[in-house]
């Protein structure tokens, strides 16, 4: 009820307001023609000009909106064009991101090859496998890239050195399964360099036993301690052990000794790997060793 009364009152006032404005306009025109406005004309013009400009701009925008609204096919066409452009920009952004990642990995590989006598080929880790309780990963490179069974696989994590994470186990044309060094069936020869001697042993995976890796078969009279760096020794034949997959280059970083234990006539050391294989998504295979 109140609303209808207000609307009616507003409608009755509109003609009166229009009439007043019309009379005021006629009066101003008459005064202007009689030359009686003087400075008032100039002032009114300077005051009204910005207002008229804003009104004109608003009118122009309103006309555009009305025109576009009255042409839905044009709106649909513009919307489709915007969607297509958005899709193209997203695809381009993804391509740039991938290229930047490839450049970063190539720079890392070049740095590693500069610092070490290794020829590398890199690939994505496309899957993690735990068949029959074995810890394995699948690399997106294979025999077509020169990968062979028994080759060492390395990776980097943050500021760690490029370190051994596994040995190539089986190879396909474009993929390779890698047995991680943390698996209990993984054995490679390891070495600790000291000031005046070297300490050699066998690096054995311990994941199935609730640990990571351990350096075993260390002579009791050899001195080792927490903080020692363990690298590959490349001495599987010298140990007389059945290590067909462990013929890998020497001096590949593996990890750091955390604690040492004496058992009977030998010692063993728990090792913290430089690289957590559960977190890496890219690795390199050492396909050749220079002189």
Radius of gyration, taken over Cα atoms and rounded to an integer in Å:
40 Å
Q: Which spans of ≥5 residues are poorly predicted at pLDDT below 50?
A: 1-12
**Contiguous helical run count:** 3
Q: Strand percentage, roughly? A: 25-35%
Query: How would you describe the oligomerization state of the chains in this entry?
Result: single chain
Helix/strand-derived class?
A: alpha+beta
Number of strands: 12
Could you tell me how far the N terminus lies from the C terminus, measured between alpha carbons in angstroms? 100 Å
Helix content: 25-40%
pLDDT average, as an integer?
80
Can you tell me the overall shape?
elongated
Task: Write up what this structure looks like.
Helix content is 37%, strand content 30%. With 291 residues, the chain is α+β, with helices and mostly antiparallel strands. Strands 1-2-5-4-3-12 form a six-stranded antiparallel beta barrel. Strands 6-7-8-11-10-9 form a six-stranded antiparallel β-barrel. A hairpin with a 7-residue loop joins strand 7 (198-205) and strand 8 (213-219). The longest helix has 44 residues, at 72-115. Mean pLDDT is 80; it is low at 1-12.
In a few lines, what is going on in this structure?
The chain is 37% helix and 30% strand.
Notable features of this structure?
single chain; 291 residues; alpha+beta; six-stranded antiparallel β-barrel; six-stranded antiparallel barrel; 12 strands; 30% strand; elongated; disordered N terminus
């Amino acid at each position: 009820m109140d609303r209808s009364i207000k609307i009616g009152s507003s409608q009755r006032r509109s003609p009166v307001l229009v009439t007043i404005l019309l009379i005021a306009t006629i009066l101003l025109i008459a005064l202007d023609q009689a030359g009686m406005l003087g400075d008032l004309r100039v002032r009114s013009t300077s005051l009204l000009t910005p207002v008229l400009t804003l009104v004109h701009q608003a009118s122009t925008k309103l006309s555009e909106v009305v025109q576009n609204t009255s042409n839905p096919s044009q709106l649909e066409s513009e919307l489709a064009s915007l969607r297509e452009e958005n899709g193209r920009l997203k695809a381009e952004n993804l391509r740039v991101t991938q290229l930047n990642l490839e450049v970063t990995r190539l720079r890392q590989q070049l740095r590693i090859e500069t610092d070490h006598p290794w020829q590398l080929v890199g690939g994505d880790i496309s899957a993690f496998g735990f068949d029959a309780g074995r810890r394995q990963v699948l690399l997106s490179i294979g025999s077509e890239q020169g990968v062979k069974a028994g080759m060492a696989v390395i990776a980097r994590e943050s500021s760690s050195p490029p370190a051994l994470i596994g040995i190539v186990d089986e190879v396909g044309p474009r993929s390779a399964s890698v047995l991680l060094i943390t698996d209990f069936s993984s054995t490679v020869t390891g070495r600790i360099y000291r000031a005046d001697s070297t300490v050699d042993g066998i690096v054995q995976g311990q994941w199935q036993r609730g640990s990571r890796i351990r350096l075993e078969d260390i002579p009791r009279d050899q001195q080792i301690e927490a903080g020692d760096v363990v690298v590959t020794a490349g001495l599987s034949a010298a140990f007389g052990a059945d290590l067909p997959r462990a013929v890998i280059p020497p001096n590949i970083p593996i990890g750091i000794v955390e604690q040492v234990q004496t058992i009977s006539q030998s010692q063993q050391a728990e090792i913290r790997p430089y690289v957590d294989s559960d977190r890496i998504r890219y690795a390199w295979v050492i396909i050749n060793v220079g002189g």
